[in-house]
Amino acid sequence: MIAAEWVKFRTVRGWVLAAAAAAVAVAVLGLAGGGAQGSCAGSSCAPLLGQGGEPVSDSFYFVHQALTGNGAVTVRVGPLASTVTQRRQGAHRVPVPWAKAGIIIKASLQGGAAYAAVMVTGGHGVRLQDDFTGDIAGPAMTAGWLRLARAGDTAWTRVGAVTLPGLPATVQGGLFVTSPQYTQVALGVAQISGDPSQSTAAFSHVALGWPAGRWTGTDVGAAGPASGPATGYTTEGGTFTVTGSGDIAPVTDGPSGPGVTLAQTLGGVFVALFILAVVGAVFITAEYRRGLIRVTLAACPRRGRVLAAKACVIGLVAFAAGLAGTAVAVPLGQRVLRSRGVYLPPVTALTEARVIAGTAVALAACAVLAVAVGVIARRGAAAVAVVTALIVAPYVLAVPVPVLPLGAADWLMRVTPAAAFAVEQTVTRYPQVDDVYAPAYGYFPLAPWAGLAVLLAWAAAALTVAYVLLARRDA
Questions:
Q1: What's the whole-model pTM score?
Q2: Which of 32-36, 104-108, 183-187 has the lowest mean pLDDT?
Q3: Is 116 exposed, middle or buried (0-12, 13-18, 19+ CB in 10 A)?
Q4: Which of 45, 99, 270, 365 is least crowded, fewest Cβ atoms below 10 Å from its Cβ?
Q5: For residue 133, what pLDDT is reported?
Q6: Stretch(es) of the chain classified as CATH 2.60.120
């Protein structure tokens, strides 16, 4: 039966050309890269990289001294006082949940160097963090005693333990304060205000498990005196008052991040989706329109086999077209974008392969869904309208022009077939970084394969309904 349906497909030149056009659309529009242009040249936009190769921010005020061998730092830290300076409102006190004050041991003063730090935060209690992505929650307190000790490559507190491979014998250790950009929520839509914050904390009863040396203040990661809020430290009666700004954390892809991801090379997928939905729908509705469905069902009375064969043929054709297009668009599209000065966050070969293959599977599932809806509706135009509305409309409302609150957009991208676009996701959501984690910035609420599974479930459900109707209705 599959062979018979394949013969039907390839003998209609328009269907074959349409499938080829879908592949070409994905490839050509992928190479166009959505017309994105940038100003990066050489390494001018290369981000600071952490120990795992991820883009990071490494900016804080550090009161430190050289520490050789094993030892510990103990201190009592007071609560953070944070200030945000906004253009309209001026400077005013607000809580900054991820402002940090505590003890840090760092391999060097170089940006991106290995570190371990224990800290109090503005709204997330005590944390033990290391090498930018490591984060362990401790007690829910905003002030108190902290201790960070080193034994070989291991630094630990009661919160937990971390290992820093290759930590040099002499490190920089001491007190630090940092304070990221201020995040606020308006009308259910999270926004990064773009206004830097600064935070201040007092450190007392500072005790070193190393021979005491001279304390030095360094604004790590600062571009210059005018680059942000005032930072520094003072000491009086054994108490250090430290003011810092910035963050020690991974760089996310929200408004404060690069803004362009691998998905920029997949703009042609929407064109291909529409083309393949049309082909999938007319592959069955053409037989209804011309009355040939009676001949098909007479030749094969087992109607479920007819439906399965049509779904298999159109699914394989759509998968082949999608795979051919994305295999060109993704790797070559990245080269084109970079040649135009656009910065793209690096991805692994495995992630790239998942995006290519996953997108092809999603296009195949969309075509199969169109076949099923075509059986249900018996009209090609209606089937195409339903499929595009189910997939494209939720995506448009949540991603390119986000008009919905985050909660509604999140819901749409979980339960509609548009959830399959999560397979294109290449960015990471970090719980220890406040940002706009929304589909508009490449963050989908479901994992890549889970999102694809939602579309496959819709296709399976539609095929089930189509089978029931095909078995009960007259041809």
A1: 0.84
A2: 183-187
A3: buried
A4: 45
A5: 93
A6: 56-250
Residue 231 and residue 244 in contact, taking contact as beta carbons nearer than 8 Å: yes
Residues in the chain: 475
Are 39 and 45 a contacting pair, CB within 8 Å? yes
Confidence of residue 187 (pLDDT cuts 50, 70, 90): very low
**The two structure tokens encoding residue 334:** 């990245």
| First-to-final CA distance of the chain | 18
Rounded CA-CA distance 32/24 in Å is 12
Determine the average pLDDT of the residues in 57-86.
91
Nearest Cα to Cα of residue 180 among 88, 250, 248 = 248
Beta bridge partners of 331: none
Give the phi and the psi of residue 139 in degrees, each rounded to 5: -60, 150
Q: How far apart are CA 209 and CA 149, in angstroms?
A: 8
- CATH class (in words) of the domain with range 56-250: mainly beta
What is each CA distance from 353 to 230, 328, 342, 444, in whole angstroms?
46, 12, 21, 19
Buried b (16+ CB within 10 A) or exposed e, 266-285: bbbbbbbbbbbbbbbbbbbb
**What would the DSSP string read from start to end of 253-320?**
SSTTS----GGGGGTTHHHHHHHHHHHHHHHHHHHHHHTTHHHHHHH---HHHHHHHHHHHHHHHHHH
CA 269 to chain centre: 19
DSSP 8-state secondary structure symbol assigned to residue 47: P
And the tokens for 180?
Answer: 């990221």
Mean pLDDT of 246-250: 92
pLDDT > 70 fraction of the chain, expressed in percent and rounded: 88
